Amino acid sequence: MKKIQISPSILSADFSQLGNEIKRLEEGGADMIHVDVMDGHFVPNLTIGPPIIKALKKNCSIQFDVHLMISPVEKYIKAFADAGSDIITIHPEATDNLKRAVGTIKSLGKKAGVSLNPKTHISALKDVINDIDLILIMSVNPGFAGQSFMGEVLPKVTELRKIINDKKLKIDIEIDGGINFETAPLAVKAGANILVSGTTIFSGSLKDNIQKLRNCA
Hints:
This protein is α/β, with parallel strands linked by helices. It has seven helices and eight strands, in the order βαβαβαβαββαβαβα. It has helices at residues 18-27, 50-57, 77-83, 98-107, 154-167, 184-190, 206-216; strands at 5-8, 32-38, 63-69, 87-90, 111-116, 134-138, 172-176, 194-197. It has an eight-stranded parallel beta sheet. It is globular and about 40 Å long. The mean pLDDT is 94.
């Protein structure tokens, strides 16, 4: 099993102090920074764009794990890559050619991820499973922070972990949505090795919560 990594979601951070929040996360032991990008079209919320990522990246040495919930996604991949994204994750529903979009991400020297919503079947990955670096399993419906964990996605995690192991692929399984000290162990047991958490990490000491989340998993 791969080392468990923690990717705090800045969706739950104090946006008036975002630069300082990211610095605190890095100092607190975060493995990467999870950035949710929403366009108000693909999902019902608006967040940040490439200029903010570029500004924040200047003062951060760990990876930016950027989740694009925007459509059409191909129109914006290069801008987010140029802004400093290290991992770019997209949704199959946000492009009419997932394989081409993944190829674009890889051609820009970035790690490519594909995100599966709770109702998206793993068959959506069939044409790109050998090309990607990460699979992001959404354990809530994307759009807003603070939602409750949907345990029904765990069999999907287990099935994907088996496929990855059987094929001897080097793909991380990340899970996002309702991840806390109770649900993290369930996600890890199912096969996830990267945990995205926002509300739990930002409720109290960042360092203590990051370590506790990693240990409880």
